[in-house]
Design brief:
Blueprint lengths: L1 H7 L12 H28 L3 E11 L8 E5 L6 E6 L5 E5 L10 E3 L4 E4 L4 E4 L5 E3 L8 E7 L2 E8 L6
Antiparallel strand pairs: 1-10, 2-3, 3-4, 4-9, 5-6, 6-7, 7-8, 9-10
Length: 165
Amino acid sequence: MDKQLKADFPIDWEDDGYVSRREFFKFMTVASGGLAVGSVALAAWSQTTRGVKVHEPKRIVALSEIAVGKSMAFNYPGDSDICILVRHLDGSFNAFSRRCTHLSCPVDYQPDKDRLYCPCHNGAFSAVDGKVLQGPPPHPLRQIVVEERDGDLWAVGIREGEASA
């Protein structure tokens, strides 16, 4: 039986560990192509998973309690997640995480410039969409999704990824 096996599968054991240049580059080409396809697929997947991450709704404030051109701090979704609600001159609302995307210093609203300002390193964000206006922050602020319900404002989710209006 052993002779029959060797006859059916002749292996030259001296050349068994040898990999030709052609075989090596074929393997490298296939492996590189697989990594490239995987990277593109991962990038596409990350773009499609952006959107609103829904959390349990939380009442922020009654509409009548926040004046036009003012802001208010609140926590959402947890007690340690600091946020800021801004009421613009036109009466509209926007809410954002108060943590600067540079080093997590709390941002404050500057109504005269209609921006959110980080005093730690002179960073500034748009009070409308949270995008970086100046300074070292590398990313926009996370936007809190706000809804009006029976005269109250409620936080209902967090817009993930790039901030958008």
